[in-house]
Design goal:
Blueprint lengths: L8 E2 L1 H6 L4 E2 L5 E3 L1 H11 L4 H4 L1 H5 L10 H6 L1 H8 L2 E2 L2 E14 L7 E13 L5 E12 L5 E13 L7
Parallel strand pairs: 1-4
Antiparallel strand pairs: 2-6, 3-6, 5-8, 6-7, 7-8
Length: 164
């Protein structure tokens, strides 16, 4: 396994200067039936297309599929592998998404990985970085990505009250 990029520290100015930089791809992550079943139990979405391999085998995809939200939930893991940490970061938060599309199915047993391109870096708030990422999650061997998104994150820098 690679050394986490999150262990690499760069200045806030590095982020601002490197708008347009692409980080990744991350390592492959296997989304197996056990992971899908656990996610279904956690989120309450136990639709047969996710949790019933026998019934899903006769469906349009020939087997069970990962939930789109399961694939999306792996973005944090993928990002930690490839995106460096801003110097002085004390906390990062998921601010939401401007756009998410689940473009292609993720069959059980598939491997996925993510690539992150820094679209914007707003340094106008003292002690804070507002980052917008164009994200693509690919399925190994797939013709289309599983997920494309515009992901908004915040990095809070410095002391307890955000002073840089």
């Amino acid at each position: 396994m690679r050394v986490l990029a999150w262990m690499q520290v760069v200045t806030r100015e590095d982020f601002a200067v490197h708008t347009g930089a692409t980080y990744g791809p991350s390592d492959w992550i296997v989304i197996d039936q056990t992971m899908i079943d656990r996610f279904a139990a956690l989120c309450g979405d136990d639709q047969y297309i996710h949790v019933d391999p026998i019934r899903a085998a006769d469906g349009p995809f020939g087997g069970t599929l990962a939930h789109g939200f399961l694939t999306m939930s792996l973005l944090s893991t993928m990002a930690r592998q490839v995106v460096p940490r801003p110097a002085g970061a004390r906390m990062g938060v998921n601010y939401g998404f401007d756009r998410v599309r689940f473009v292609a199915p993720v069959p059980a047993g598939s491997r996925v990985r993510g690539t992150f391109t820094l679209d914007t870096c707003d340094t106008s708030m003292p002690g804070e970085l507002r980052l917008t990422w164009d994200v693509t999650v690919e399925v190994e061997g797939g013709a289309k990505p599983a997920l494309v998104a515009c992901w908004l994150t915040r990095q809070y820098l410095g002391g307890k009250h955000g002073a840089a």
